[in-house]
Amino acid sequence: MRRIGIVERGDWQAQAAECGFRFHTIDGARYWDERAYYAFSMAQIEHDLEDPSVEVHQMAMGLVDEIVESDALMQRLAIPEAFRDWIAESWRKREPHLYGRLDFAYDGNGPAKLYELNYDTPTSLFEAAFFQWQWLEDQRASGRLPRDADQFNSIHEALVDRFAELASSLPPPLLFAAVRESEEDQGTIAYLRDCASQAGLHGAAIALEDIGLSEDGRYTDLDDTVIGSLFKLYPLEDLFNDDFGRALPKSGLRLIEPPWKAVLSNKGLLPLLWERHRGHPNLLAAEFDTGGDLPAGWVRKPLHSREGANIELHLADGQRLHSDGPYAGPSIRQAAHPLPAFDGHYPMVGSWIVGDHACGIGIREDDSPITRDSARFVPHAIVEADAPATFYA
């Protein structure tokens, strides 16, 4: 694994505008950054990332049955009692799921280490599935990458195929919802709508704020039509704490992601995975936090923190780092395994799971060991280590 500088495409911003990638720059700072890319060998992709992603996904899925049948485990994950039966029933019915993202620390040497699972509302999807593939094709055509350069990326095809599999199980009408003012979330649901449409599954977009609730407790669109199925890019745990979300268990609404994903998107899953697979090469030691001062060599993470918020890091050498944010409540501790540094850039590898298959990666890098919401997306390529250096000029 190497970080290699490369000339960016002169028209990349025009291409981004053409395909609706409006959040490539956020608050004047680059989010999409193609001035460099991460190079992998095929062996690193297949043996160090793809195979472990499938295995970790299967281990996580193997825990769902145990968790939903245990009030004590639901309590440890801080899942409100009013939603536990609904979550458990969605699992017993095996309500289908679409996708998820596993975040790994990986430097090209040794096993990738799981940081967390983003299995309810994973983002950075469009840029991973579509825009970085377009970058690869353009850079091969320009001669800046070898003609045989490849990418671990069949995310788009996997999404279309998965939507085709889901089509018969989703009650109509299907809607796609995100917060109105979130350009990134709106871009993500626009992309997913397009994938679904390519599979013959058509659904309208709606702002989350425009969804109504009928007198008999069913969710409706702006025309007061009852919504049958809803892809919602909004955290389930936030809905649990909202008056509007309290109607979910009796509403009859089919959700994507399904309610049982709440137990996999929860960082409390990390100590449960460690307890049941202690010493697994792709897992980090983890335990439920008991409060107090964080010992050296550990990281504290709230159960529901997102985008690197409210993370406390106490490295073995005594260095402490902390990120601000809105999250509080129960936390876990995870053994500190700092991200690798490439000339001051700290990449985290997001491995995409669609259905139950690993199908691609996206890399976000930060200037800090904590990957925050300001992290940049940097493309990747599979190239041989001995490829001529002129390709990277």
Structure, explained:
The chain has 393 residues and is α+β, with helices and mostly antiparallel strands. The chain is 29% helix and 23% strand. It is built from 10 helices and 21 strands. The strands form 6 sheets. The chain has a 5-stranded antiparallel β-sheet. β7 (174-178), α7 and β8 form a beta-alpha-beta unit. α6 (155-166) crosses α7 (183-198). The longest helix has 27 residues, at 42-68. It is globular. Mean pLDDT is 95; it is low at 387-393. Residues 12-382 form the Glutathionylspermidine synthase pre-ATP-grasp-like domain. It comes from Luteimonas fraxinea. Keywords: ATP-binding, Ligase, Magnesium, Metal-binding, Nucleotide-binding. InterPro entries: GSPS_pre-ATP-grasp-like_dom, PreATP-grasp_dom_sf. It holds the Pfam family GSP_synth.
N-to-C span: 18 Å
Major beta sheet summary: 5 strands, antiparallel
Strand composition percent: 15-25%
Q: Quaternary arrangement of the chains shown?
A: single chain
Shape label: globular
Task: Calculate Rg over CA atoms.
Answer: 21 Å
Structural class: alpha+beta
Number of DSSP strand runs: 21
Keywords: ATP-binding, Ligase, Magnesium, Metal-binding, Nucleotide-binding
Domain Glutathionylspermidine synthase pre-ATP-grasp-like: 12-382
Pfam family, one: GSP_synth
InterPro entries: GSPS_pre-ATP-grasp-like_dom, PreATP-grasp_dom_sf
